[in-house]
Every structure is written in structure tokens, then in C-alpha cells.
């Protein structure tokens, strides 16, 4: 939050405080974030654990990588909403969205409102989740 305007930083801190007991929906807001950089940082962390003999290379699996991501304490997203009609993931949570459902809207982010969110959720609720498999 260091590079954001003070007014926005204060609002985000207030929002964090008011929602800290929330245990249902999680909204991730990524600012100056890159999925590739996150994976590189996870690999550096894993490498350090191997060098320090805290981890054996044979023990590395998907959970090891997940446990070293920035979002290690959060569930993977179920739904990725892409605004502005963009048909790309833009280096966003590339590990975590492996099985997320995508919903694309032509609405730009500043104009995205509650009605757009409800539309995305209703669309999502009608889907059959496949998690990478065929049904």
C-alpha cells in the first residue's frame, strides 16, 4: 500500500478492519501484482528451504508450491471476472485460477457495479464445474 495515495490507503485499511471477521466471500484486489513474479518468489522460498535442509526435494508437490504463494492462506478463486471485454488473464493468479470459471464483461472496471456482479454470479451458478476433467 506504500505507493498508493493516502486517502485510498486509509479506505483500504478501513475496509480490511470492517471485514476481518468475514468468513464467506473473499475478494482479492491485486495492485502491482504479477503471477509470474509470485511463482518465482515461491520457488526461491522453496529453494531456500531445501538449502536449509528444512525440505527434501522429493517432498515437493503441488501443495508445496501452493504453500509458498502469496495467497497460501486463501482458497483458490472459483470465478475470475474479466472486465473491459479482455479475453486474457493478464498474468493474474496464474497458479490459483487453474480451475476457476471465467466470466468476461464488456463493462470497464470503474463502471462495474453491483448489478454486473450479480449477473456474473448468476451465470456462474448455472455452470457445471469440471475442474479440468470431462463430464
TrEMBL record:
<dbReference type="Pfam" id="PF01255">
    <property type="entry name" value="Prenyltransf"/>
</dbReference>
<dbReference type="InterPro" id="IPR018520">
    <property type="entry name" value="UPP_synth-like_CS"/>
</dbReference>
<dbReference type="GO" id="GO:0016094">
    <property type="term" value="P:polyprenol biosynthetic process"/>
</dbReference>
<keyword id="KW-0808">Transferase</keyword>
<dbReference type="InterPro" id="IPR001441">
    <property type="entry name" value="UPP_synth-like"/>
</dbReference>
<dbReference type="GO" id="GO:0045547">
    <property type="term" value="F:ditrans,polycis-polyprenyl diphosphate synthase [(2E,6E)-farnesyl diphosphate specific] activity"/>
</dbReference>
<protein>
    <recommendedName>
        <fullName>Di-trans,poly-cis-decaprenylcistransferase</fullName>
    </recommendedName>
</protein>
<dbReference type="InterPro" id="IPR036424">
    <property type="entry name" value="UPP_synth-like_sf"/>
</dbReference>
Amino acid at each position: 500500500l506504500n505507493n498508493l495515495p493516502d486517502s485510498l490507503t486509509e479506505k483500504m485499511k478501513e475496509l480490511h478492519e470492517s471485514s476481518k471477521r468475514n468468513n464467506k466471500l473473499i475478494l482479492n484486489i491485486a495492485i502491482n501484482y504479477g503471477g509470474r513474479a509470485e511463482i518465482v518468489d515461491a520457488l526461491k522460498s522453496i529453494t531456500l528451504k531445501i538449502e536449509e535442509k528444512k525440505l527434501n526435494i522429493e517432498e515437493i508437490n503441488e501443495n508445496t508450491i501452493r504453500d509458498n504463494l502469496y495467497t497460501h492462506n486463501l482458497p483458490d478463486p472459483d470465478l475470475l471476472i474479466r472486465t473491459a471485454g479482455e479475453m486474457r488473464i493478464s498474468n493474474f493468479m496464474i497458479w490459483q485460477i487453474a480451475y476457476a470459471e471465467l466470466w468476461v464483461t464488456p463493462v470497464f472496471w470503474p463502471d462495474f457495479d453491483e448489478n454486473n456482479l450479480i449477473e456474473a454470479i448468476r451465470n456462474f451458478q448455472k455452470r457445471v464445474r469440471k475442474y479440468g476433467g470431462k463430464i
